[in-house]
Design goal:
Elements lengths: L5 E8 L5 E6 L2 H9 L5 H6 L1 E10 L2 H12 L3 H11 L11
Antiparallel strand pairs: 1-2, 1-3
Length: 96
């Protein structure tokens, strides 16, 4: 049996004004859910469906702790984090 992976991820709206931070054990499925109106209420309301950042973890508690940490940050600090791997805020999981 393989090691299960967990993800802390950041979505933004098309305009970039709204930012959503979440945790999942299946990043591809979860992004599909967000894009098809089955994600969180916040992401659906603000149309935050563009994946701009993700971190992988082996332990779900680590992923959840990171989610909580990021949610406590000011927006500019979150933007700086995204820019470390994705300076142009491109969608890391483009639609087919």
């Amino acid at each position: 049996m393989g090691t299960r992976q967990y993800w802390t991820y950041i979505l933004v709206s098309g305009s970039g004004n709204a930012m959503y931070i979440g945790v999942t054990n299946d990043l591809e499925r979860r992004i599909w859910e967000h894009r098809n109106g089955q994600g969180s209420e916040f992401a659906r309301k603000y149309r935050a469906t563009r994946l701009v950042y993700a971190e992988e973890y082996d332990n779900p508690n680590d992923a959840i702790a990171r989610e909580k940490q990021l949610k406590g940050w000011r927006r500019e600090r979150k933007n700086e984090l995204v820019r470390t791997i994705n300076p142009e805020f491109r969608d890391l999981m483009p639609s087919e």
